[in-house]
Amino acid sequence: MSTEATIDSPAAAAAKAKQNTLLSPRFYTTDYAAMDRIDVSPIRAEWDTMMAEYEGDNNHDHFQRTPEFGQEVAERFSQVSPEMRQEFLDFLISSVTSEFSGCVLYQEIAKKASNPDIKALMRYMARDESRHASFINQSLKDFGLGLDLGDVKRTKAYTYFKPKYIFYATYLSEKIGYARYITIFRQLERHPDKRFHPIFKWFERWCNDEFRHGESFALIMRSQPHLLRGGNVWWIRFFLLAVYATMYVRDHTRPMLHHAMGLDSDAYDYTVFDITTQISKQVFPVSLDTDHPAFRAGLTRLFRIQQGLDAAKAQGGVIGAIKRAGWAVAGVATFTRLYLLPVKHHALPANVRVAPAW
Asked: Would 256 be classed as within a structural domain?
């Protein structure tokens, strides 16, 4: 049973957005001086093509609500159960926090770095993420739960990541974001009767922004080959597993959301993993074997451990604390076993960029 507080007020929504748990989106800072030392000249032609796409801004007018938006919310979302309502609100808050996290990070890099290539890129990506966060937040406002994003920026805890960790984690975040959104969009495109909220109609062009952001980090990493070989491959493996495991556990804590869309959480997650793995071969020399029985069993085990942690937290007291410690140890052991599973190796393609073809 989940121990999450009911999201029924702006204060509860804000508290949810400011959480810092293993499953919640985080805000990051990094070494801005190191960003200045990035040299994209080895991939200049691809870089300039990408920057021209950002400047073209084909989503300039996309994030505008239609007159029918509110009517659809009133007609269709009003039919969902209270439990389903909570899962959807949790999804919106997690999504807006994740999008705004990118916006804040990119804004800070643009402000504090002097490298003209990096500054220009970060301004464009911050622009996109700001639109995404504002658009989701408007849907929270429909329920009287809009977030004060300025307050979230001032009060949420920040985590320091070295630039290379930013590259690995943010690349994967953007690409898996694309895979999640496009999988949902395609499902609801086939089954419009399952589209219980109009925000999903915006997911296709929205996720193409996510895809392009990932391409940007792919180019940065390919311009610095040392990030993709030697000991850094172990970090790539770590971030692949961390991102996949976090998504799996988080998604399985809100199964009604997927069921309402006609999706099975397991099938949905492994579809997203497959898409992300195919894409990530453009830049990562290794990929996880997500079809391996031990991998799948390990993710299921991590979800059961999370359920145990939630139950121990709800129990409270000394016994609850002891149980939480035991579940935490079990979580570390399970993650370690997953980390040490064999991975797939492959050569990097000559052409860095890929197209959003899913």
From this structure: no
